[in-house]
Amino acid sequence: MRINNNTKRKKTHKKSQMEMFGLSLIVILIIIGFLLFVSFRKTMPITDYKKSYIADETASNFVNSVVNVNPVECVGNDYTISDMLKFCARGDQIDCGASACEIANKTLWNITSRTLVKQGMTFILYTENAKWGDPAAEIELKNGDCTNRERGQVGTIPISLYPVPGHVYLSLAICN
Amino acid sequence: MQSKKSQIQMAESIAVVIIIIFLLVIGIVFWSGINRDDIKTSQLEYQDLSVIELAKIAAELPELRCYNTNVVTKVNCFDWYKILAMNYSMNSPSSTNKAQVFDYYNYYFKNSRITIQQIYPNDTSVVIYNNNISKQTTLQISIPIIIEKNYGREGRKGFGLLIVEGYYR
Of A82, A134, B84, B136, which one has the greatest count of Cβ atoms within 10 A? Predict the structure, then answer.
């Protein structure tokens, strides 16, 4: 009789142990679920639409505006940066106290250093075809360092070399 | 014996219910905290979007654009003398219709500050609209623009920034 009672008590003891184990398992699973949820929320990428909007506006408007600027070196005429890049690419001589390439480079550096550099933007402002067959003579102004993969929004403006065939391109790449 | 067993079972059930309620309460508190953060984030996003909207309006103001025989000549070109005239009519104490002008632009620009800063050849800035209610800025947008000083025929063009700042209400 006593043996029988002992086995019964052992059985109930084991049963309650199992129940406790099940309960703690549920609690642990819920906690793990919570932790997974929190970590998932934290790693969810937040789309920074402000940054992309500002970079987009800056890239396109900067090149569109800067090519229309009249350099201070050419007071007596209406030459613009667009003309300077054109003269530079064609190798034309101008009466502004310096070469077209030098004036374009100096003016672009002057403007970028007072705007994009001051705002702490990482960028590359560069020309293509400014010197036919001489890539070393291209204008390249940059702040910070970014590879092709990091280049975000790019604004490009083509400038016709008419009557000579071809175009010179001025591009601004705002880096991510 | 039976009564003791059922008492233990009751206590066990109560413990389970208490634990579940405890977990539920923690969950609700946690969830409401996340929701509160989400609401704050969407409020900020809304403020920023309204500044972007303001920047779009300011960049297209026909009152300030460069015209040549009634045709808009360049994209993003602002006439320097129109900028000065707008600044005068909005901010000068000697302007006769200052209040009406301010009210008119307040409908579009609300609580913001709009500045036109000439960068090249000279560094000058003109505030054309300022209604900083709380002095706590949200987002600042600088749009590159052409600033034309028109002396009669083809004007000389400089480089500038249209700076739009939004303020919290």
Answer: A82
Cβ separation B76–A61 shorter than 8 A: yes
The count of other CB atoms within 10 Å of the CB of residue B133 is 11
* Residue A45: cis peptide before it, omega within 30 degrees of 0: no
DSSP character at residue A159:
E
- pTM of the predicted structure, to 2 decimals: 0.77
| Tens digit of each residue's pLDDT (9 = 90 or more) over B52-84 | 888 889 988 888 888 776 666 677 899 999 999
Query: Do A24 and A66 share a domain, yes or no?
Result: no
Neighbours of A159 (CB within 10 A): 22
- State yes or no: ipTM above 0.85: no
User: What is the extent of the structural domain holding A20?
Assistant: 1-44
The reply to whether A64 touches chain B by the CB within 8 Å rule is: yes
Mean pLDDT of chain B: 85
CB contact (8 A) between residue A61 and residue B161: no
Q: How many domains does chain A have?
A: 2
Domains in chain B: boundaries: 42-167
Rounded to 10°, the helix B2-59/A2-43 angle is 0
SS3 A99: coil
Structure tokens given for B32 = 């409401």
DSSP conformation class of B65: B
Interval A112-117 mean pLDDT: 93
CA distance A54 to A112: 16
* Strands B137-149, B77-79: pairing kind: parallel
Spell out which residues of chain B touch residue A12, defining contact as CB-CB under 8 Å.
Answer: 5
